[in-house]
Amino acid sequence: MKKPTTYSVLFTFLLLINFSLKAQNLNTDVKAKIVLEDVEGNIKITGTAENLTDILQSLTYKLSVIKKNLKSENRSSNAQEGVFTLDANQNKNLSTTQINKSSEDEIIVLLLFYDENNQIVSQDRVVISDQKKKDKVIILDDGIELAGIVADETKTKIGKDFYDNFYYLYRDYNLNAKQIVKVNEELSFGRNTKIVIMIENEVVFEFLARPDEEFLESMAKKALYETYQFLKKIENEKKYITQY
């Protein structure tokens, strides 16, 4: 087996430092926060933003709510998007939605902020469930490291159906990686769209989508496998750097 050169080891080390710095920069200038309220048995969800700096901030947001009945496996999702500005040190409510919940439901709420280059700069996630399973009830707050983020960048119903399949597989297998996994949807030939899984700006898996439930479920399993392999590669690279 060919031994890595000093240059290749140094290059990999610098890449890992760069990725680490990007992760640390999240939530430093603008804080994303999901606020939950009980309103007559329903859950009121409000996405809020707080400017932690002394300068004007202009960003876009996406508030996603995914609901799954753990008994019937039925799923539904919706998302609200928009552009917002914050004056220095301002705190603002961005979007509000309301959803009903039974004891058999699991609800995932994800709030993401993007800059002008469509890069995620802040995030918050809440998972609501009455089921006593590992990693099923998570409320993130100050001082707790965010993990397990799967960003929904799909545009069509087909894309959202795939995202739901992939996300629940991702959670069921407890991958819960620190890296943000993006599910993008791009226009392709004709009326087709292409689903692209990305981690740290690298394409992990991609395919042409089609409106077939079994096909999307199959692609979700393949995408999960490739995602797992990519995350293991990152983990092994970090271990290798630590050894040297």
In short:
This protein has 244 residues and is an alpha+beta fold. It has helices at residues 6-24, 157-172, 213-243; strands at 30-39, 42-51, 57-69, 75-86, 91-100, 105-114, 120-129, 138-139, 150-153, 181-187, 193-199, 202-208. The strands form 3 sheets. The chain has a 5-stranded antiparallel β-sheet with strand order 4-3-6-7-8, with no helix packed on it.
Task: Give a written overview of the molecule.
The strands form three sheets. A five-stranded antiparallel beta sheet has the order 4-3-6-7-8, with no helix packed on it. The chain has a four-stranded mixed beta sheet with strand order 9-10-11-12, with helices on one face. 26% of the residues are buried. Residues 1-24 and 132-146 have low confidence and may be disordered. β6 (105-114) and β7 form a beta hairpin. α2 (157-172) crosses α3 (213-243). With 244 residues, the chain is α+β, with helices and mostly antiparallel strands. The protein is globular, with a radius of gyration of 19 Å. It has helices at residues 6-24, 157-172, 213-243, and strands at 30-39, 42-51, 57-69, 75-86, 91-100, 105-114, 120-129, 138-139, 150-153, 181-187, 193-199, 202-208. The longest helix is centred in the last third of the chain and has 31 residues, at 213-243.
User: How many whole angstroms does the radius of gyration measure?
Assistant: 19 Å
How would you sum up the major sheet?
5 strands, antiparallel
Task: Please report the total strand number as a whole number.
Answer: 12
Shape: globular
Beta-strand share of residues: 35-45%
Structural class assignment? alpha+beta
**Order of neighbouring strands in the sheet with most strands:** 4-3-6-7-8
Cα end-to-end separation: 18 Å
Q: Which sequence of SSEs, written as H and E, runs from N to C?
A: HEEEEEEEEEHEEEH
Helix content percent band: 25-40%
Number of helices: 3
**Kindly state the mean pLDDT as a whole number?**
78
Taking pLDDT < 50 over at least 5 consecutive residues as the criterion, the unreliable ranges are: 1-24, 132-146
